[in-house]
Design a protein that fits this description.
Layout: H1 2-22, E1 28-34, E2 47-49, E3 54-63, E4 70-79, E5 86-89, E6 100-102, E7 104-106, E8 109-120, E9 130-140, E10 147-159, E11 164-172, E12 191-196, E13 202-207, E14 213-219, E15 222-228, E16 234-238, E17 247-251, E18 261-265, E19 268-276, E20 295-300, E21 305-310, E22 316-322, E23 325-331, E24 338-341, E25 350-354, E26 364-367, E27 378-388, E28 394-404, E29 407-416, E30 419-431, E31 437-446, E32 449-459, E33 469-474, E34 479-484, E35 487-493
Parallel strand pairs: 2-10, 11-18, 19-26
Antiparallel strand pairs: 1-3, 3-8, 4-6, 4-9, 5-8, 7-8, 9-10, 11-14, 12-13, 12-15, 15-17, 16-18, 19-22, 20-21, 20-23, 23-25, 24-26, 27-28, 27-35, 28-29, 29-30, 30-31, 31-32, 32-33, 33-34
Amino acid sequence: MTKSRNKIPIVAAFLAVMFVMTGIASAISVDINKGSPDQAESAGDPINVAPGATVNFSLKISAMVNDSDLFNITAFSITGPPPLPTIALKAPPLIIVGGNFHLRPSGMDPYIAIDSFNVTTDASAPNGTSWTLFVEVKGITPLNGEAIDTASASRTIRIFIPPANISGTKFHDLNQNGTRDAGEPGLVDWTIELKNSSTGAIIATTSTDANGDYKFSNLPVDNYTVQEVLQAGWTQTAPTPIPPGNYSVTLAGVDVTGKDFGNYKKAVSISGMKFHDFNQNGTRDAGEPGLGGWTIDLNFTNGTIFKTTTTASDGSYKFTDVPPGDYIVQEIPQPGWTQTAPKPVPPGNYSITVTDKDITGLDFGNFKPKPPGCEKPECKITGVGYIPGKLDAKATFGIAGRSEGGIVRGNLEYQDNGLRIRSTAILSVITSEDKKKGWITGLAQVNGSGSYPFEVYVEDNGDARGVDWFEISVPAIGYSNGNLLSFGYIHIWK
């Protein structure tokens, strides 16, 4: 019994020596890596790829063998849901799939064989789809072809599309053209909603910041709808068409920007008066007439002109269809006039914020400065003529004013389609040093009654063939008229 027990370990030792001497493989190692065969990665982690992407893999087979030992790949496959990725071996392959091959020595390391191949996923593969890449290798004895060892390796390949963002701006579309132009500000505290396009459910909401910007972050692959929550009194202009006025977004791992929303509020009007400020106090008093033909601008705060208009014959002006926003209203100065309103001057303009209500009373006052009175013993203004009338085709006038030794004398006769002004007293006669401009003030009856202050302004062209200017105003009755003479003359001298 003892003898027979000793024979078993002797036979086992003999067989082990024979396996080593003949080079029969005792262990095989198979590794599948993305990229380099020595790339450090955990075999248990899935390899993330994008739809339609081609990824390079390395296959490394190693074993403690001799040069003459043979190996065979018995399985090389990808399994999982369709559409399956495709495998393309390097041409020509170093490792033959389905045939026998040798391993080669690698210094002190085991004998190895390394080859590469590409895996290409289908572009339509949905996010999260995964497949198993499987390789099996067996060793074959050089004598009788019997399998002596088998090893395998597998890796999970998964479609992974990273989360992405959707962003845009909510802006005040001042000119209502559906596009954000220079000077159009962002709108704060507007609600933007994100919906799932398939279910219609709202999955997130956010509010625009001080610049009108918004963002939805870390969104998975899906189809989304981005929409604003309309506020009372506002009209949407972008995106078009309206309705629906929203964006359909397919998110696939890449940020989507520029999903902007434009709106404007109910348009309002801005109005005021351009008046002749006779007493230069910056306020329109009774009897101070309007001034026609003056240009008034409505500007954005950056100085860009939004609208422009001209005052009517009564001095009134009006801007219509003005959307909400910040603006500056200003007059365009005319030569020879000095501005008195609004104060301070300069800048002599109005900075306004338009909401949903009309704005009135933005008045501008101006006067014509008068030069010093006559310093010489004699100062005279005379003239007769016709001017284009306010109510009729022409108005007639005749004037004569003079200052002699501090005594002022003269008269005025003026008619305009039934209106008759006749002076009762001349109070002042002033002429400019160049004898081209003159002023006469006094009291007059209107249609035979009352005693009303009046002012006459004249310009002498200085040439008998030239055209002179005559202008009259009676503030108490709100009357003024003036123009180049269509017939007649004016003389100024000292």
